[in-house]
Amino acid sequence: MSIAIQALEPRFIDQLAAWHQAQWYHLDDSVNEAVRRKRLAEHCDTRSLPATFVALEDGELVGSICLVAHDTSDRPQYSPWLSRIFVAPEHRGKGVGKALIDRAKAEMRRQGHDALYLITEDKGPYYARMGWINVENYKLNDHPVEIMKISLH
């Protein structure tokens, strides 16, 4: 297995939008696949936010991670965010998610950020094992989630 993490390329946008819609449509029904494609098109330049990195295994798209300034408008004190961390089901358990997170953390550190946030519905223990801490239990469109933080120092 050879995993490469790189900046999003336009050729991967359709697949990512479909994956993201299937995974997270229930959290915000105002966002459809077309909206996701449009937003992802703005994520290809990873030198600033928003940005998306993709994981490729032998050239095949297997996962992604987005970086955004704000993932929820009513928590401006938290920034920047990891968002839409996704690994294709058949590639889970291989370290792809951790590789994507490590790349995102390195990029945010390079850009001068000292912390990073994320929202998770049910993966709190996974992130906690990597050093993330719960900073708030939150309702995202009436769905209970955790807001978690990690120091980049």
From TrEMBL:
Superkingdom as given in the UniProt entry: Bacteria
Xref: Pfam families: Acetyltransf_1 (PF00583)
Listed CDD domains: NAT_SF
Protein name as annotated: N-acetyltransferase domain-containing protein
A cellular-component GO term for this protein: cytoplasm
InterPro entries according to UniProt: Acyl_CoA_acyltransferase, GNAT_dom, NAA80
N-acetyltransferase domain sequence ranges: 3-153
Record-linked PANTHER family: N-ACETYLTRANSFERASE 6, N-ALPHA-ACETYLTRANSFERASE 80
GO MF term list: acetyl-CoA binding; N-acetyltransferase activity
